Amino acid sequence: MTSQPVHQPHPHLGGRAPALRALAVWLADGASPATALITGSAGSGRSRLLTGFLMLCDPEYRKLLDTDVLQPDTVPPAGLPTPPVFAAAGLTPAQLLWLVADELGLGADRTEEVYALLAEEQERPVPVVVADVDRVGVLPVPGGPAGVAEDVLLPLALAPGIRLLSDVPRAQAEWLAERLPAEDLLVIDLDVEPWADADALSLQAAAMVARPEEAEAVAREANGPLVVELAAWSLTAVPDGPAVGFPHTVGDTLDLHAERCGTDELTLRRLLAPLALAGTDAPLPFSLWEPLASAVAGKDLSTVFADGQRLLLPFFDLLGGEGDGNGSEPAVRLRHPALADELRERFGTTVRESSRRMANALLTGLPEGPTRWSEAPAYAHTGLIRHALEGGLLPELMADPAFLVHADQVVLRAAAEHLTRTGTELPAVGRTWLRLAPLFTRTEADPRTVAGLLEHGCRLDGLSVSEFGVDLPWHTLWHRPLAGIAGITAAAGPDGTPAVVANLPGAEQPLVAYRAQTGEQLDGDPVQLARPSDHDREAGALRLGVGGDYLRIWQAEGGQLAVFAATAPLAGADVTPDGIVLVADSAGLSALRVQIPDN
After folding, report:
1. Do 373 and 362 form a contact (C-beta atoms < 8 A)?
2. What share of the chain in percent tops pLDDT 70?
3. Mean per-residue pLDDT for 335-349?
4. How far apart are CA 544 and CA 523, in angstroms?
5. What are the DSSP calls for 181-204, one per residue?
6. In terms of Cα–Cα distance, which of 595, 579, 462 is closest to 516?
């Protein structure tokens, strides 16, 4: 009698054979449910399962695996097309949708066209993977995963030319299941059989826990692989600790580990609070950890932090530092987002107060003086935004132009848009900044350019703002809200002073002229005003490079001085011989005095 071969588990997963078997069928069999969703509680291994499956799909990575020793029906057949993977992390639902549309070559210009093209019948459905739905957006604001489910996953699941695989939180899996035909949907819920896979937990515990009897107990009690991992780290950190039992949930791992270390669980949670409120996608500089934990606690935790290596070890990862080759400061983050969820849930209504305390602690630590924000540590330009948002301090900060200029423009835009959706009133300069924010994020403008464009935007909005925390590339001398400008040209006024002539086709007065320095309208016929000669232009201090919606400003004998970007196509640009830049767009006509460095 021939014995059956003994197969090995997937090296990255240590099991999950039923789930891998179902996913292999999803990829290979066009008759199986077209949509497969991997779900489960936080820490159940959704992302890990998806990663392990994609290892088997990618031909290059597959070469690194000995697929002959795996159960054959858990391995997709060789030669199948590798499904494109779209990561939602850090993107808005709209950005994710357009990423998919571009990859699929839909050739759409509007969102409605994307949906219409997806709904068309296709000759051969293509597999598509959407990963990290729970990490959508640059800030974890409420409604992010729900937006992906509604705007991206449901249209893809209903598209006849798409076979969709995605890992999603349970709320989104249930929402999609209510809207999709049951025969077209496979839900792999890692919290229930047959997908929970107790054998995989036993293998994981056996590999991570030194003592067999403890490994058996850990696997028996744990409700998922994350709890097994944290329990193993706890036993490793305190191998000689008292017997306190074994955890069932992520919250249990915190409570039991604190007891094993002889500490109360509240102290442990306060020490970890800065990492939880920072988020796993935004590592916290190590030097800020203890001060921010003390701020959350409202008392000095420096001694317990200094003595807390064994207490904290199971729950964080150390990133970067001198060993990473670039000399950056070490940073820390929680091992898994489920830890942040547990900590935030236990803090409950005090999350707002904790975030406010962290934001105030960061603000107190900033340098004094006009260079406060330019010299602030990088975390003050990013992490502070989140803490100020949750702590209710962001509107106040957005009244400071220097903060607006130096803050991370992408993160601040997401936070400000969230505030406006919730009905929070922004200060006037904050509203001007938000109006221009798409321009800042699209052009990836540096702080000096942001400051110049914000100064110009404030002038258009009738605001008097002078301190931006950086030397401005220009000062807006004046602005005229003229509609319908078709072109402008520099000229010389009747007394020889610089002027500008604007062409307004269809207007009662098609040509109007203004003094370049003051914006005062000139009397008389603009046609009679002299235009600068080629010699005058060559002798000028500045040169212009005009694009569709931007203006590059160069020094005649030197490099680029500044870039003026507009929210709409430019209607014209010119420069007077004495260096006043004139620019027109749909907002009207402006004159800029560019700062020319001394040679």
Report:
1. no
2. 98
3. 92
4. 28
5. -GGGEEEEETTSTTTS-HHHHHHH
6. 579
Taking the chain, what is the end-to-end CA distance rounded to the nearest angstrom? 93
Tokens of 18: 């039923």
Rounded to an integer, what distance in angstroms lies between the CA atom of residue 257 and that of residue 265?
Answer: 8
> 458 is written with which tokens?
């404030």
Phi/psi at 400 (5° precision): -100, 110
Confidence (pTM): 0.90
Measure CA 560 to chain center: 31
Residues in the chain: 599
Give every CB contact of residue 478 below 8 A, 6+ residues apart in sequence: 518, 519, 590, 591
Distance (Å, rounded) from C-alpha 132 to C-alpha 119? 24
**pLDDT value at residue 599:** 62
Residue 36 burial (C-beta neighbours within 10 Å; 0-12, 13-18, 19+): buried
Q: Mean pLDDT over all residues of the chain?
A: 92
pLDDT digits (tens, 9 = 90+) for 42-82: 899 999 999 999 999 999 988 888 888 888 989 999 888 89
At residue 321 the predicted structure's pLDDT band, cuts being 50, 70 and 90, is low
- Dihedral in degrees, nearest 10, Cα atoms 119, 121, 127, 130: 0
What is the Cα–Cα distance from 73 to 433, expressed in whole angstroms? 56
Query: What is the distance, to the nearest Å, from the Cα of residue 430 to the centroid of all Cα atoms in its chain?
Result: 20
Task: Name the phi and psi angles at 128, rounded to 5.
Answer: -135, 135
Say if residue 110 is exposed, middle or buried (CB neighbours under 10 Å; 0-12, 13-18, 19+).
Answer: exposed
What percentage of the chain has pLDDT greater than the value 90? Answer: 77
Task: Indicate the pLDDT class of residue 455, thresholds 50, 70 and 90.
Answer: very high
Edge-to-edge order in the sheet of strand 498-503 = 487-492, 498-503, 511-515
- Retrieve residue 21's tokens: 């078997």
Q: pLDDT per residue over 183-224, tens digit each?
A: 999 999 999 989 998 888 999 999 999 999 999 999 999 999
Would you state the pLDDT for residue 323? 36
Q: Is the pLDDT of residue 256 over 70?
A: yes
In DSSP notation, 14-76 reads S--HHHHHHHHHHHH-TTS-SEEEEE-STTSSHHHHHHHHHHHH-HHHHTTS-GGGB-GGGSP
CA distance linking residue 140 with residue 276, whole number of Å: 12
Q: Is the pLDDT of residue 5 over 90?
A: no
Q: Token match 């330019």: residue?
A: 374
pLDDT on residue 127: 94
Q: Quick: pLDDT tens for 259-269.
A: 999 999 999 99
Distance of CA 559 to the CA centre of its chain: 34
345 in Cβ contact with 378 (< 8 Å): no
Query: Which helix H or strand E contains 382, and what residues bound it?
Result: helix 378-391
DSSP state of 152: I
Handedness of CA 401, 406, 409, 411 (dihedral sign): negative
**Dist CA 375 CA 473 (whole Å):** 19
Distance CA(232)–CA(14), nearest Å, equals 16
Q: Give the per-residue pLDDT at 211.
A: 94
CA distance 180 to 110: 25
Our measurement of the distance from residue 143's CA atom to the centroid of its chain's CA atoms, rounded to an integer in Å, reads 15
Place of tokens 């994350």: 226
Q: What does the alpha-carbon distance between residue 88 and residue 560 come to, in Å, rounded to a whole number? A: 37
